[in-house]
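Contributing: when you submit paired examples, paste them exactly as shown. First protein:
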Amino acid sequence: MRIGLIIYGALQQQTGGYLYDRKLVEALQHDGHAVRLFSLPHGSYPAHLADNLRLTFARRVAAADLDLLLQDELNHPSLFLLNRLLRRICQCPIVSIVHHLRSSEPHPDLAQVLYRPVERQYLESVDGFIFNSHATKDAVYNLAPSVRSASYTVAWPGRPKVYDERPAPTGSSSTDRVVLLFVGSIIERKGLRELAYALHDVPPDQWSLHVAGDDTVDPSYASTCKHMLRKTQGDVHWHGFVNDVELQRLYREADVLAVPSFHEGFGIVYLEAMGYGLPVIAARSGGASDFVRNEQNGFLVDPEAPAAIARRIKQLLQPSTRTRMCKTAIASYKTHPSWNDSMRKAAKSIYTYINT
């Protein structure tokens, strides 16, 4: 069968969403299907809205004579109107892969006046969905109730490979600083500023923090975070963007992953950390709630409540608490589906659109 996939840029981009898309493409190709990529250029939101006028792009997709067209929901501003044309000229089902909604992220109210109706119109323009979490599905249904009757499947991202599985619980003694690790781009949604607020209420001689993530995406915000963390007078280490080998080392040397995001469509970084035996401080909003069990393998927090985050960090200063949660974190990781199992589930759902 001939299957198309619309994305922004290249498929090899290093984000969780593009990893998911790559794994799905690999599963489809393993089954013998031809997958053709259709790339739209990265740009501003207004530029993406203008993509709806790319009639030559639509004709190029139609010329591929596809049996099914997949779309990464990230592309919704480019397709919310263009899909009407694609439906007519392609005459094949359109399925959206939804990692998280733009309108689920924190934005000014005025921006949401634009984002929400555009995203809703896009969701109403497709035939079915592949969701990466139950929370993502619920967010879609809340924004666009009319799509509740559409076919869907929930296929979690698979568990990432762990290169040095911790055989025993984490072992910082009561006299050691507890090593906190933040992993993620230094952008507002990830909640590093809110973590800094929380750490002001935790004695600085009891913790150290390692920050691993690209700080060039929003330099002004990154500068604010650095300033706030300096004011904690704690032991803070900035690593910037790190490669896989360095990230593995940071996981092995950490005691707790602390990424109090405002929203995560799934939050694969939490699952990865669990594989290294780390309890996690995770986003309450979004897909992390699918596998982070509050007070068992981690804590689900509201980033706008720094006092509550500080309280959870103080709980994790206790070796007995970390030991208990470490064991549960490892067990959660081991029982999570593999990439192969998850993508088989997603691929199977795709085939039902073609066969009906």
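Second protein:
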Amino acid sequence: MQVAKLEDLYGREGISPGHSACAGCGMMVTVRQILLAAEPPYLVVSPTGCLEIVSSPYPYTAWRVPWVHVAFENAAAVASGIEAALRVLERKGLGKRHNIIVLGGDGGTFDIGFQALSGALERGHKMLYVCYDNEAYMNTGIQRSAATPLGASTTTSPIGKLEPKKDIVSIAAAHGIPYAATASPHLWRDLANKVKKALSYDGPSFMHVLSPCPRGWYFDSNQTIKMAKLAVETRIFPIYEIEEGRYRINVMVSKPRPVEDYIKAQRRFAYLLRPENAELLERFKKLVEDRWNYLLRMAEAFPAK
């Protein structure tokens, strides 16, 4: 089923408004869209992170579906065990297979949980792993992660991170999984359709969703969707999918907006805009251009069917 309109998703809220997320939290917009698109029955596994903190302050919960909170490093491993157990129960006629969705932040995906994620993808468990990427360890004080962009200021990279962002989608796809994709909350229909496609495969799938964070990126809370849109329009966050090893760019940005439009809108890039850091800014721009050209080449060499 392809999502044609918002009404296609009504009545399937997996998480309630009763949470304590910051105003304008891109993560909660992302999570709500994912769960609206997911076909029930499903259950959710979350490592420690912003999502766990704001959705389950004891003794309350915002979850309307089965939800498992586990340690920072082992969400994919726990999801693997759940999937294997449900598969056995189904084979014995004692239960029904559920869709399994892992919702992890960049810290629990790019860094601490990477080993468990790689193992789950290699073993071929049927699950959808979604990284909601706010580009730092936001719930513990805005420390840098491997997802933090070049030049972005955090509490552990106060004058700007000097290393580029890890290409997590290419790493996930390199495991030979059937589906990997990026998505943005401002493109809700694209995101919903990708969730449906990912869950249709009898194997692991991976989605990387940009989740702007007003508190950690330093922009006004009413600008969240604008930030997500700017990231795509500047080619900083390309929207594409890799299906059975074949590439499709879903949003072809033929005339990109200047990179400065994005970084000037966020105080975390203040050091990157200083005259003495002109060389670092040019490196940032080259990374954006090189990544886009790489995707163009891959889409031409291995076009989606």
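If you have annotations for the second protein, write them as plain sentences, like these:
Residues 6-301 form a domain with the Rossmann fold fold (CATH 3.40.50.970).
The longest helix spans residues 278-301.
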